[in-house]
Amino acid sequence: MALHFANARVLPPLLAALCLAACAGTPSMGALPSASVATAAYHGDAGRPAEGKGWVRTELYFATGQWNASPEDAAAAEQRWLDFLDREVTPRFPSGLSVLDVYGQWLPPGATTPSRLRSKELVVHHPDTPEQAAAIEAIRVAWKQETGHLSVLRSQLHADVSF
Fold this sequence. Notes:
Elements: H1 11-24, E1 52-66, H2 71-89, E2 98-106, E3 115-127, H3 130-147, E4 153-161
Antiparallel strand pairs: 1-3, 1-4, 2-3
């Protein structure tokens, strides 16, 4: 079966365009100049290894105020948290960390109803070393001393990381 075009002058330019498009190819989304080849992992920094074994993911939960706090009290609590983060946390983990806003609930000793709390979840991936464990504990103690809170929940999981 042959194709018939009403205007035969269209066929050669159309074929040429199709051939050029097929030859050109489509670069991948991550294409970079040949001088720098992209890989999934970050390379060249001991604090953020391409492949890290023997690391842990530590999560700390900090109560920052009552869930039903006034806008003014909530803003003051947020500033207090940011000051604490800058003063106590970031110097101990300058390579990176994450902070999430979370709803927390806790039943204090002797209470019959739980306290509903605005809270922060601090997530730090770090090598599993005594020095890093001491830094985590220092953060917990500092928050408890500053706020008078009884607890800063710590959860820790072993992690293989890649940055």
